[in-house]
Amino acid sequence: MIFYFSGTGNSLHVAQKLSENDGSQLIDIAEAIHEKSFEYTVKDDEKIGFVFPAYFYGLPTFVAEFVDQLTIKSDSKPFTYSVITCGGSIGNADKMLKKLLEKRNLELDSSFSVLMPSNYTIMYDVPTKEEQKLVLQDAEKEIEKISKLLDAGEKGNFAFHGYLFLFTPILYPIYGIYRKTKKFYATEDCNNCGLCEEMCPSEVIQIENGKPVWIEEKCSHCSGCINRYPTTAIQYGKSTIKRGRYLNPNVKFS
Ligand SMILES: Cc1cc2nc3c(=O)[nH]c(=O)nc-3n(C[C@H](O)[C@H](O)[C@H](O)COP(=O)(O)O)c2cc1C
Question: Does the predicted TM-score (pTM) go above 0.85?
Answer without folding.
Answer: yes
